[in-house]
Design goal:
single chain; alpha+beta; Heat Shock Protein 90; five-stranded mixed β-sheet; 11 helices; 5 strands; 66% helix; 10% strand; histidine kinase
Length: 377
């Protein structure tokens, strides 16, 4: 029920009943009435003033009581009609229709023993029925409008909550994309730098030309890492930027990736059995490159110096299979760089977004990373 000030509502109801009673008494005084009608009108008017506020808390019961009074005296008619309107505004339509019919019946009884002068009983009853019909319709319309407004408010609230949820999801996706991009671009490069820096640390007795060569590789790698970092930041700052706006690695870049790992001192064996590599979709090729890159990075971090076997095979109409294996490090070996475990998580999401699947396991003393990517014909 709509909340309102009870004192204001009760005062309004009393005013309606009082004005109705005074109006009825005025009409009676001008037209006369049956014996004892004045006492009935006074009593009905007083009772109507008392019962009118009850309609606000007990609409149906209060209105029916006022309808009984209206059957006895026109002094209760304003309060009875007010009750019918209130019921129509607060209760279901069948209930309001039944109360309205009771009001018409009560006034039909009133018209039998208190006929109106200047109008036949039939026309008077028709006017009463039309008036009650208008009250019921007005109340139902007001109730429907109130329900519509409440529904619109609820929809607006839900839309606002949904918008907030979508914004939060978009922010989370953006953060995930940023983390994945930073990891894919920089983790490989920085792990290479760590390998060269480790060689400088543990081989201080190396020939000067070897030290100079390693230092040059570190310097070049730092510059490359900075360039890649600037590219990533420029892409993330531009909301309209897409991955296609800058060169992206593809399957054909795998030999260069493997050669880079070999230059860093790693032992990497690549077996490429891909048929028609140019036919592979660019998105699948980019994902395959990231899978191999992550596999080599993990091997370099956790199993430095261990040989890595990379096998890539597939053809159009089947699927592209990537298999990376490296022996586990000896017990007690310290990783070259600490891992967070987010690399494989992000890589799994990347492969799934490409429609593929990625698995990793430890079996037979080696770590295995295997990915399947769809390759439509």
């Amino acid at each position: 029920m709509e909340q309102r000030d009870p004192r204001l509502a009760a005062g309004s109801a009393v005013v309606v009943a009082t004005v109705g009673a005074l109006g009825a008494l005025t009409v009676w005084g001008r037209s006369g009435g049956p014996p004892g009608a004045l006492a009935v009108d006074i009593a009905a008017g007083v009772l109507a003033c008392v019962l009118a506020p009850v309609v606000l808390w007990r609409p149906v019961a209060g209105t029916l009581a006022l309808t009984v009074l209206a059957a006895l005296s026109p002094a209760a008619t304003p309060a009875a009609t007010f009750g019918a309107l209130h019921v129509a505004q607060r209760r279901r339509f069948p209930v309001a229709l039944a109360v309205g019919a009771a009001g018409v019946a009560g006034h039909a009884v009133q018209g039998l023993w208190r006929p109106e002068g200047g109008i036949t009983y039939g026309w008077w009853l028709l006017v009463v029925a039309l008036a009650y019909g208008a009250l019921v319709g007005w109340g139902a319309l007001a109730q429907a409008r109130r329900a519509l407004l409440a529904s619109l408010r609820e929809r607006a609230r839900r839309a606002e909550a949904e918008q907030g949820r979508r914004v939060a999801e978009a922010r989370m996706l953006e953060r995930t994309r940023m983390a994945r991009e930073m990891h894919d671009v920089l983790a490989h490069r920085l792990s290479l730098l760590a390998t060269y820096a480790g060689a400088l640390e543990y081989r201080p007795d190396a020939p000067p030309e070897k030290l100079a060569q390693a230092a040059g590789v570190v310097r070049a790698g730092v510059h490359q890492a900075l360039d890649e970092l600037r590219e990533v930041i420029s892409v993330l700052r531009d909301e309209d930027a897409r991955d296609d706006d800058r060169p992206q690695p593809v399957l054909a870049d795998l030999p260069a990736l493997v050669a880079e790992s070999r230059d860093a001192g790693g032992s990497v064996q690549l077996r490429d059995e891909v048929v028609e590599p140019a036919a592979l979709p660019a998105a699948a090729g980019r994902t395959a490159y990231r899978v191999v890159q992550e596999g080599l990075t993990n091997a370099r971090k956790h199993a430095a110096g261990r040989p890595v076997r990379v096998a890539v095979e597939g053809r159009p109409g089947t699927r592209l299979v990537i298999d990376i294996r490296n022996p586990l490090p000896p017990d007690g070996a310290v990783p070259l760089a600490p891992g967070t475990g987010t690399g494989l998580v992000g890589l799994t999401e990347r492969v799934q977004l490409a429609g593929g699947r990625l698995d990793h396991e430890i079996a037979a003393g080696e770590f295995r990373l295997r990915a399947w990517l769809p390759w439509p014909a």
